Amino acid sequence: MSAIMRRPRTWCVALVGGVLSALLASANPAGADDAELRGLADVIDGDSLILDGRPIDLYGVTAPGFNQQCHSDRLSWSCGRAAARALDRLVRGHPMVCVTEEPPTEAATVARCTVDGRDLAEAMVERGFAVAWRRVEPYATAEQGARALRLGIWLDGDIDPWLWRPDEG
90, 77, 76: which is closest to 46 by C-alpha? Predict the structure, then answer.
């Protein structure tokens, strides 16, 4: 048999081997542990936590950084610390479940997190302490409600997120 005739067989064996490896990896309990984290968390800021020693960023939202100030025509306030306190009130002493939404990076795991079945990102947006990533529901709808009620960062009307993070504008 010629070398040309052997190549397709070698290619098929490699393909089948790759598919089997992927299937075994997806069935691996260690992989399942990485997709879902459970336990008590510590708050970093309004959209970041530490759970089981891992940094977690809440999927679908962004909040002011811990030391960020919000400014309006009428006032200047520590909206970053207020956002962190709001998230802390939601999670302190309550076991939470986080399901990975994006592949983890060295910086953090992006996940949907719940406490007693309540989506933490949605709760933060509803309270006016986080902004929805565009077109991510139910967060975008929750943000409209918080803006209308002038909650949290929307206290003095609409402000653009890049105003709380001038280095990102």
Answer: 90
